Amino acid sequence: EADIYQTPRYLVIGTGKKITLECSQTMGHDKMYWYQQDPGMELHLIHYSYGVNSTEKGDLSSESTVSRIRTEHFPLTLESARPSHTSQYLCACRGDGYTFGSGTRLTVV
Amino acid sequence: GNSVTQMEGPVTLSEEAFLTINCTYTATGYPSLFWYVQYPGEGLQLLLKATKADDKGSNKGFEATYRKETTSFHLEKGSVQVSDSAVYFCALSEYRANSKLTFGKGITLSVRP
Fold first, then answer.
1. Which of A40, A90, A15 minimizes the C-alpha distance to B104?
2. Which strand (E) or helix (H) includes residue A25?
3. Residue A108: pLDDT band by 50, 70, 90 thresholds?
């Protein structure tokens, strides 16, 4: 049974639309992360948070933004989606180890 | 900075073949090392880990030994199965409270019946 949930699993959306990818965890962990996974499978850290009201940009520059108002939730938002945002987005949290969600596969047409 | 280098893929093997996936790392401190596996359409799952030199991580028939002298953490399995077909990522994390995971590029393994 997953302790970290991502919704939706798949999303196809038109250019210019605003979207929010949801990530929720039930473990009470402070540290959470968003990774972008390109078609070649490489993983890039785009955002992370060490607790409520803490957000930082990751190693790969991203046009997305994140928020951390509650410990359990770490949503990622794209204000205006573009085809270049087509990718898989993976959320993770860290306690003793890292736990990953199942991912959201986003396609922008 | 930290980095992880994995051998180039993809790798295609026949069932029951021996598997080796090479991984080397660069780190400023004394990292923990991990292998993650991603099955088709899924997120990442921890396969095994090692936290200090000469530790051997093992799980589901897979093994990897933390070699500080060669800065390596190669993944091995004696007899692969079709169900092992997946993408495998080597990763490291330093032993600091706010350390992040650094991943290799991943390698796709396909096992033929």
1. A40
2. strand A19-25
3. very high
